[in-house]
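Input set for joint prediction.
Command: fold jointly, output tokens.
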Amino acid sequence: MMYKTHHCGKLTKENIGETVTLNGWVQRRRDLGGVLFIDLRDRSGIMQAVFNPEFSAEAHAIADRARNEFVIAVTGTVVLRDEETINKNLPTGEIEVRVTEIEILNQAKNPPFFIEDDIEIDESLRLRYRYLDLRRPEMQQTLMLRSKAAKAFRDFLDSEEFMEVETPILTKSTPEGARDYLVPSRVHPGEFYALPQSPQLFKQLLMVSGMERYYQIARCFRDEDLRADRQPEFTQVDIETSFLSRDQLLDMMEKLMVHLFKTTKGIDVATPFQRLTYDDAMNKYGSDKPDLRFGLEIQDVCDIVQNSGVKVFASVIENGGVVKALNAKGCGTWSRKEIDDLAPFAARYGAKGLAWIQVKDGEFKGPIVKFMSEEEIAALRERLGAEDGDLILFSADKKKVVYDVLGNLRLLVGRRMNLINDKEYKFAWVVDFPLVEYDEDAKRYVALHHPFTRPLEEDLHLFDTDPGKMRAEAYDVVLNGYEVGGGSMRIYKRDVQEKMFAALGFSPEEAQEQFGFLLNAFEYGTPPHGGVAFGLDRLVMLLAGSTNLRETIAFPKTASATDLMTDAPNEVALKQLEELHIRTKVKKEEKKSEPNA
Amino acid sequence: MMYKTHHCGKLTKENIGETVTLNGWVQRRRDLGGVLFIDLRDRSGIMQAVFNPEFSAEAHAIADRARNEFVIAVTGTVVLRDEETINKNLPTGEIEVRVTEIEILNQAKNPPFFIEDDIEIDESLRLRYRYLDLRRPEMQQTLMLRSKAAKAFRDFLDSEEFMEVETPILTKSTPEGARDYLVPSRVHPGEFYALPQSPQLFKQLLMVSGMERYYQIARCFRDEDLRADRQPEFTQVDIETSFLSRDQLLDMMEKLMVHLFKTTKGIDVATPFQRLTYDDAMNKYGSDKPDLRFGLEIQDVCDIVQNSGVKVFASVIENGGVVKALNAKGCGTWSRKEIDDLAPFAARYGAKGLAWIQVKDGEFKGPIVKFMSEEEIAALRERLGAEDGDLILFSADKKKVVYDVLGNLRLLVGRRMNLINDKEYKFAWVVDFPLVEYDEDAKRYVALHHPFTRPLEEDLHLFDTDPGKMRAEAYDVVLNGYEVGGGSMRIYKRDVQEKMFAALGFSPEEAQEQFGFLLNAFEYGTPPHGGVAFGLDRLVMLLAGSTNLRETIAFPKTASATDLMTDAPNEVALKQLEELHIRTKVKKEEKKSEPNA
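tokens >
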């Protein structure tokens, strides 16, 4: 065959006069008065190939048989296009190749959708024919971006003397955390490996080993019910360091983000990142991953409305709840229907109703205003900076609900009022997360992050009195309303670790049984250490300007964890199960009634 | 705490006079006349810290409590050592740090073995305490080397415009090939994912997608009975290209190896690599992964001994076997016992006996000589270049046995006679492998590589008459007797693929059922493509000068696929199995009788 000498998209006017061979796919073919024009596509772009019977009757005849997505090789001369056929929309639009020889390398059936950007087709069809979907330039660019992003991470971490270490995929099931994927052992009947939810324990052991700076772009697995932005397997840039303070680590990670955004997209990210405590983030934005590209801060109004004639406010506060308000600047002009439509939106986040006030002609208007005193109105006006044209939205409930409702209303208003600059990348650290939270089902505290997260030094005294009030040296990296990474400084002193397990309700024996090998390791000289993990899929999604995580993954799975292209998972031969000493509990009937999507 | 300003092993005489803070582990502590000397170790090396009560009584008192493997922070001044305490064996042996402040960051129990190189302890103890084993400098250097090797691969492939693409770990079980690890699906009862034996199908699909140049440093899984140099999970550098000829690809891969060896170890690898056909490799060296650092080529002597008075030679040839000989240069002086000891060695590879001839004083000597004619002896002498002091070893059997026996005798002689230069790295390509081999059990041909390997163009006509004679465009990269990589050009034309499946005894329906999604993909414009995969574990082993694959892996498994540190695999909660719709077929009794190693 004729092997390519050049890439289609890389030829320029400099190549005029050269004889070149190109290989690629027929993007489209046109016949203009007996002359054939083929747009030839490879990974680099498109080049117009011209088949004029006057150059070669044979080549013209063969080209005439080529159809869309045929794979061809052409040899010819690079020439300047005629003035009238110049295509300013194409990087290679000023030149073309006059073909003297063509070889059809492979044929193609008509594809089920066009191989071009901005197609409007069902995603499941794209996933079934992923190998064709990935031919589309936007998908190629996203995967290229992902490859570049991985390289940017590696280059930076290498320059900071991080070692890449691979940790096992066939590892041990641990009872805390999310649901594990399990792998039956053939050699050890009745025993199972688990796929890692993260390399957490191994990276801490590498610090015990004295590796000091470790990273890995690691595949992680969680068998959870999938949301649109979750995948059963996902990729995290996993980082752990010894002998660094929290601030040294966070500073280094900021530089890493700057390098990533600069080298992949030429974007200048501003540093230092804003640092918000968890409490501040929740109080101001109703979220631990606030979108900071716009203001609209939430205000606490408990003190103002605790004796309000609006009975629901007063009673919520009396029962230990809170009342907070959001001034939706400029939304006071919305129609009654538009305002009423906010209630079902708020209900999705647990709101039982949605109280509101319009500010018009200097007056507060709305159903609840008549129950309010003059003083109340004046105080609210001041607290919220309420002006003509504003819409004040209230949430009164348990703290958690109020955060969720107002946090999401804030995002809705921000989007609807065009307060968000799509070109802006606003990073922040959310720090000082709670160490533990109370699990009503288990009737005990559970670790918010994991049981190896270090408490703040100044909160250590609370272990014995009020663990629920303790804060952790844990931090999340937040970007434009997404959590793109997170981590913590880890406990490295035996006595602190013991107190932590006691606070979580573990007996020393239970702790040993569940985390024995790590606890043992901790006794042999563990350095102070801490780390971060970044979600590569999500970062690439944000870099690509997409909102669909599946667009960033070459072969993703659906919400039911199915690969539509290979049809995995599937049934396997009985012999395979017998070798693994397992049997399925599924009868054929039972199975058939199971939904498949 | 006092965070490190410098790394222990990176301080030089240039730092004399500076105040530095170091963090690390106590390698050893000596008390010389009331002055304490601590060898402080971090990833970079060792620095001597001196605690003289005259500098700081407090620091001296604290240092006195430190024991081996304690984690400490010290601050002090870099000074030149006294003449008599200079240690020329240590890169930092001319300087020391006069400590004025010390902080014990963590204590350590006495480790189960010394944290130093060349320890003679049971490997299972090292694996159980892998986090301590990895503290030893030689293990740190090997993991560092592995990290560097991965980077060398990536940098080269990046410079050649390869894209890194991640392919799924949760994928589909396919019936051909080695045994799969399976993962039961919770969402789809009775169905299973399989862990990939390699990304083979996905990388070919990426070529269908037009990615042109793909790579991935990919984890692969094979549930096989493990030998010393196999692991249930291993890492391969997986590469696939479109629109390259075989020779273009092999040339590029040679440059890749040159880059790898140069940047990781400063070794200059000679190119072009020797290219041997499979037939040549087997005939000359009795192996498809010959060690080419020495000669000792095997000679066919069938024509000479076919009518020999040595009955076993004549009868083997009559029954379709072969007789080959190896001239073990210089081994003619071995004692009778040394020669006799070769027989049980040969028997391991299937030899029923081992005929031999010593050449002494111009004469052939040995039990079989008396059955040979003068002409036979003269012909053997010439064919084998036999001279005084030589030992000629014969193997007469089926071809496969003869290759194995003489190939391994050749290696034994090469090692014993010191013919092998340990510092030499001799690469070769073994090409033109057989396309298929006959499987006596299945009574059909099976693919030697896999069913998508392209046959040599000139052998295509044999599909209908004698597939067993067909050669494939498959190639292995061989280094010093190890296969370090391999690959092939792939079939990309539908008609060739159909003939291949027919040759393997598949009906078109069976082919569709087993490889449907790939066959379908092949209909939509598949480019000519081919690739390679390198074994990273094995390459790092060779770069590190080791012979144990486990030394190159941070957390390896034993021969029974157990992780001795975490104790994986292990039993899991019944609830987990129920969620996965499986049960184990193991009764407690049954399980207990199962050997655990």
